[in-house]
Amino acid sequence: LAPWVPVVGLEIHAQISSNSKLFSGSQVQFAAPPNSLVSFFDASLPGTLPVLNRRCVEAAVMTGLALNCSINKKSLFDRKHYFYADLPAGYQITQQRVPIAVNGSLSYNLCIDNKMSQMVTKTVRIKQIQLEQDSGKSLHDDTRSQTLVDLNRAGVGLMEVVMEPDMCCGEEAAAAVRELQLILQTLGSSQAVMAEGQLRVDANVSVHHPGEPYGVRTEVKNINSIRFLAKAVDYEIQRQIEELENGGTILNETRAFDAKLGCTVPMRDKEGKQDYRFMPEPNLPPLILYDAKSLPANTNHQQVVNIDWIHERLPDLPSVKRAKLVEQYGILPEHSFALLNEDGLTEFFENVVKQTQMKPKKVIGWILNVLLSYLKQHSLTVKESPVSSFLLADLLNLLEKKEISSTAAKQVLAELWKGEGKTPLEIVKEKKLELIQDQKELEQICQAVIDGQENEVIMMVLG
Amino acid sequence: QKVTVEVLDHLEHLALVDFRDAEGVERLQKAIRFADQLREVNTDGVEPMDSVLEDRCLYLREDDVTEGNCTNELLKNAREKVEEYFVAPPGNIPLPKLEERETFLQGS
């Protein structure tokens, strides 16, 4: 049987972290009373016009720069027409012809065979980033055969990040999205929390034989977590392979991922190919961005977005942070990965290192193997840890000074976890966990043990 | 070159317009002929203008919350509401196929 080459591309929508919406001054907030964060423009009442939010433009430029894109100094807005109850205007304002950023790349890492110590770096090309409006939310009430519409989300700014089909499996897709999520969170351009709908991913999947043209692709939607993304993509690849090997064909359709069943199903309500009748947004002139060279003199800086100014203020991206951690603390790359992968863990680690004499290479073991597993067992975030970096550092100091053994230290940590306010030293004294350094005392203990086990000693001596 | 029934039907589906009668279709044909005059101009090497606003400055707004909080006013326009939600049919109700709806296009 000829091998199959799966091809996976992604369309990711990230909600921009801003106070107000992309084209109106209503608030952006998750979970508010229905239709309370809606302006006349968002409800598409006649006579209203879009007014672009500068913060959203800056967020898109930051993201474009972080993903090595070319920023288009002139980009355009378009209307994409389709009918749906949560799209009051009957069209979405997007950037179809000339988006704000194009031709970038994202590097991400994969563990080979699930071994953290063997990591390989992969790259996926970023086709483009465009600014567009989010739609409202539909709540389907099947019992009363109606849909309830809440427009709070309608008009919220989105960055659509299109990743070229350079990926080949669920694991790669998940790793790429995870890295994008970390980058967005580091930039602050999006909080990118999938559970709150701030990061939505659609996957485009197809399979073909090597050397042959690409196969028909399907679009997979309704993926609600990074874990499900990997599952959905892998399921769809398998489904297509099986279908083709059984002599069937793949339809160019949209499928929804069913998390409970772990499979993809065709989506109703998506009849054939949509004709969106794209047209230029007549109410918005082109978006012009400047850099240090092209900046006109005497401009009002509120009216100007300067790409170079934004570039200078970009924070260290995750890949840079990891490299710095490895260099500064002598830890392994996979350690830096694990640190950045958990919110607040890097800060915790650095705080412990500051307050202890134990070498960072040893501290990292306590952070990743001990502390992190406690946190996971109890489903706590680093911020919720009952053991502070101060307490842990205190404990590690006792260990480092050889006042307690490693085993004893673990026992102390278990006690500290209870959060009863005791210090490590207090627990050590309470449970008599101190290491005995006195030679005579040690001899006495050994002798007592030997005396108490006369028979066993005789057996041993006789061989 | 006449606009075909397939295209007219497609347009009625997409835009939910109703060409209604021969006069409506003829009006469309005239509009297309009028716009086709653009093709007579040689535009080789000329950048297309897609907006008369192209020389205008796109005004950028500060990221402040200045609107919203008018649920009652908005819901006044709703024919049906449930608590503070707008009510809509369960899904898009597609226009019936050409053969199944009463339209002048049938006869063409």
Automatic annotation (TrEMBL), chain A:
Name of the protein in its database record: GATB amidotransferase
Q: Which reaction does it catalyse?
A: L-glutamyl-tRNA(Gln) + L-glutamine + ATP + H2O = L-glutaminyl-tRNA(Gln) + L-glutamate + ADP + phosphate + H(+)
Highest taxon in the source lineage: Eukaryota
Give yes or no: UniProt keyword Transferase: yes
- Entry annotated with the keyword Protein biosynthesis: yes
The protein's matches in NCBIfam families, at most eight in alphabetical order, are given as:
gatB, PRK05477.1-2, PRK05477.1-4
A cellular component annotation (GO) from this entry: mitochondrion
Q: Which GO terms describe its biological process?
A: glutaminyl-tRNAGln biosynthesis via transamidation; mitochondrial translation
The molecular function terms of the Gene Ontology recorded here are:
ATP binding; glutaminyl-tRNA synthase (glutamine-hydrolyzing) activity; transferase activity
Please name the HAMAP family in this protein's record. GatB
UniProt record similarity statement = Belongs to the GatB/GatE family. GatB subfamily.
The alphabetical list of record keywords is: ATP-binding, Ligase, Nucleotide-binding, Protein biosynthesis, Transferase
Q: Which residues form the Asn/Gln amidotransferase domain?
A: 347-462
What's a Pfam family in this record?
Answer: GatB_N
Automatic annotation (TrEMBL), chain B:
**GO terms for biological process?**
glutaminyl-tRNAGln biosynthesis via transamidation; mitochondrial translation; regulation of translational fidelity
Keyword Methyltransferase among record annotations: no
Which segments does the entry list as coiled coil? Answer: none
Which molecular-function annotations from GO does this UniProt entry contain? transferase activity
User: Which InterPro entries does the protein's record reference?
Assistant: Asp/Glu-ADT_sf_sub_c, GatC
What keywords sit in the KW lines?
Answer: Transferase
Organism superkingdom: Eukaryota
In terms of Pfam families, this protein maps to: GatC
Q: Which SUPFAM superfamilies match?
A: Glu-tRNAGln amidotransferase C subunit
Q: Name one GO cellular component term.
A: glutamyl-tRNA(Gln) amidotransferase complex
Which PANTHER family does the annotation name? GLUTAMYL-TRNA(GLN) AMIDOTRANSFERASE SUBUNIT C, MITOCHONDRIAL (PTHR15004:SF0)
HAMAP family hit by this protein? GatC
Q: What is this protein called?
A: GATC amidotransferase
Species the sequence originates in = Himantopus himantopus (Black-winged stilt)
